[in-house]
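step=encode ok
step=design start
structure_in=
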């Protein structure tokens, strides 16, 4: 990603959320990714965990709900909390209005690519009612970038199933196509370019 890119904010028209990149992986030398999130009422993530990075949350406007390893936190503006590596966590908005909070991902990994792909696919009508890509091959690429695992199925099952789909996605050019469409410098600077073409 270009550090000089002017396209810092991406929006998901399906759920109404917005993410602004405050510090990108390139700008931090890969040390961290820092984003600001506008989350609509009822919005949030399912319970999940990461094996390669931790997340630091800070509420800015409104109260952010955070479940982490069996504890529920309600962060008021200015309050912070950490979801450590491997912790089972989720964040969500129980308020009646939009809330704003910041998340720092340490280290950065491919978090920016994950968000840009996810939001880009939503803009192009390629995600379902649950917000996830409709195509299993696109889903495999997004999951690979996000490095997130759901609670329930053993991690080796999730890695095995989506690992196989990811290899197929790479072979069929799905990953290359998504990176070109949603993560290239041209996409960043123009705020969108070539529309999605069916690839799977």
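sequence_out=
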């Amino acid at each position: 990603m270009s550090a000089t890119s002017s396209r810092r904010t991406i929006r998901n028209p399906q759920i109404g959320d917005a993410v602004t990149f405050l510090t990108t992986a390139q700008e931090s030398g890969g040390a961290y990714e820092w984003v600001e999130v506008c989350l609509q009422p009822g919005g949030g993530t399912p319970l999940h965990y990461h094996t390669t990075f931790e997340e630091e949350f800070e509420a800015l406007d409104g109260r952010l709900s955070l479940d982490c390893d069996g504890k529920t936190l309600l962060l008021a503006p200015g309050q912070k909390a950490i979801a450590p590596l491997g912790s089972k966590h989720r964040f969500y908005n129980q308020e009646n209005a939009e809330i704003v909070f910041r998340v720092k991902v340490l280290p950065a990994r491919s978090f920016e690519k994950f968000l840009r792909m996810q939001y880009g696919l939503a803009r192009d009508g390629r995600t379902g009612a649950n917000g996830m890509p409709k195509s299993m091959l696109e889903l495999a690429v997004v999951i690979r970038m996000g490095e997130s695992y759901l609670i329930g199925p053993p991690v080796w099952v999730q890695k095995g199933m989506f690992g196989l789909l990811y290899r197929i996605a790479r072979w069929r050019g799905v990953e290359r196509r998504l990176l070109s469409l949603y993560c290239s410098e041209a996409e960043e600077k123009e705020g969108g370019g070539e529309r999605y073409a069916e690839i799977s």
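step=design ok
step=annotate ok -> Residues 1-6, 186-200 have pLDDT under 50 and may be disordered.
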